[in-house]
Amino acid sequence: MTQTKVDHEAPLSWSERFYQKVPVAPVWVGVGIVVGLLIVFLAISWAFGGIATVRAGEAGLWEYREARLGILVALLAGYLPTARRYVALGAEKNLADLLPLLDPPSREPDAAQRRVGLLDARAVRKAGFLGILIVPITALSIDRDPALFLQLEYYGAEQGFAWIVGAWMGWSLGVFVYATLAYARRFSDLAGQVERIDLLDLRTLAPFTRQGLRSALLWLVLLSLVSLNAVDLIWFSTIAVIALVGGTAALILPVRGIHLRLRQAKRAELGRVHAAIRGDPGALSGSLISRHGASLGLSDLLAYRSFLESVREWPFDAPTMLRFALYLAIPLGSWLGGAFVERLLGAALD
Question: What predicted TM-score, i.e. pTM, was given to this entire model?
Fold first, then answer.
């Protein structure tokens, strides 16, 4: 039985506690953060001439880089901590659904749910600091001239907003990536504690799949948001590849452990059936159909073997894959919607 040990466990972070205490759904907390940051950015842009530049027609809203980056970092600064919160909530709910299957079943389900929400405090800080590096890396990938950062005229109020809020966004990004991978690893490890794999009904394993789907969706929404900066093609292409790889990994990693258990259980059951077909009288002992062993004929065993061979070794069914395919369409919709929003905002500022 495999277990995940978490050293240096700490209480939930201040942002997690904040999301818990606010009496509204996390999505509305995220929306509030975004709206507040956008109001601050618009006030700065108005005071320092950015909006005047757009209204004068010197640059379109999305052609004006400071506006584009300011809006983008505000969106991500509100989205990323919200996404992390939803990953944790999904993990708690899916763990609650898994508890009856575990060996031994948890006698303290509430405590078990709280434990799955705890992350390694040192790893969280490390991930956050590494995430902040995305800010200078992004700046270099867009400007591609390090000498610009040594010129005083490069810096202004709008740039300062992008750097400060961007650092917050980078921290949240690093923690979100770490949290997604940490929860995925824990669910993969929990597969070793599932007492019995029922090949006749894989619906009991749905919590593993739901954890992967939720994490993948949050990654693809992240891709949709960064697509707003598709103007900077090299930066966007790099982030898009990372987000697609992250989304696919988020889908697969939580179910990796249960996949191995499914494959092992399927091979063991097939071995028992093959032995029964060859005439071994005790071959079906421990089989899923052991109670019917005495009444089964050769044709029944052959039919059961055919069924076993068709049992999938991954807990993904057709609706799951269809849902993931629909999730992949979200970034495309955001690119089309982004063009509409740009025109709408541009018209409002004219």
Answer: 0.78
